[in-house]
Write a structure and sequence with these properties.
Layout: E1 3-9, H1 13-22, E2 28-33, H2 40-46, E3 50-53, H3 60-70, E4 75-80, E5 83-84, H4 87-99, E6 104-107, E7 109-113, E8 116-118, E9 128-133, E10 137-139, E11 148-150, E12 154-156, E13 161-166, H5 169-189, H6 196-213, H7 220-263, H8 267-270
Parallel strand pairs: 1-2, 1-4, 2-3, 6-12, 7-13
Antiparallel strand pairs: 4-9, 5-13, 6-9, 7-8, 10-11
Length: 271
Amino acid sequence: MKLSVIIITRNEAQNIGDCLASVAFADQRIIVDSGSTDGTVAIARADGATVIETADWPGFGPQKNRALAAATADWVLSLDADERISAALQREILDAIHAGRHDAYALPRLSSFCGQFIRHGGWYPDYIVRLFKRDVARFSDDLVHERVLTQVDTGRLLEPIIHYSYRNDDDYLRKLAQYSTLGARQAFAAGKRSSFGGALTHALAAFLRCYVFKRGFLDGAAGLMVALSAAESTYHKYFKLMLLTRETRSGAAAVAGQTAAEQTPTEKNVS
């Protein structure tokens, strides 16, 4: 059984070399890049990966489906550029695809926040379907937080993907802006609306869920930072959704006012 690894990228020069090195055991490594300007493409090609460059950005789900369409092996492993496969997980992956007990597998993921790995607050084990037979799954068309769609029997592996999610403050702020904007747009497209009070309520709920109910406090100071970041990102998502809501209402009111003005008889017409 052969294995294709698929990765989508944009300006991942600091990550892509280590990511590709961790999956050197794969038969095929595919990069779908959307306009990197920092050397990501050159690094990937120098490492022997197949690189496909795209001019547009359709969202995370559609872009991963492009990568999936380029895969030719029997099995596919989907990774992000800031993720790594350990030697132990490599052995488990190869054993799983050769054993053939399941057609897809969910893998745990161990993520770091500014240098510390987080094991509580809902961050771990964070099982996600990432390994599957090529012809039994596809990615959802979500702009962000895409997921693998499959109806086959799914197993679980034990060794985690290592995820360097937020390396520093700049990385955190960049992802906060990106994901909150995409999340707001996706929620708006799904018919959801928000208000300032709703943004505050959702942010408070996110903090309590992460820090209290999912025991983020057990990770010490890092757990508190993660809970605060969950609250902040949630607030920004719903605040941006509130702005989209207001823009829509203002636009609808303006159209209604214009329509009413056009339908109101003038003095000349009345006489």
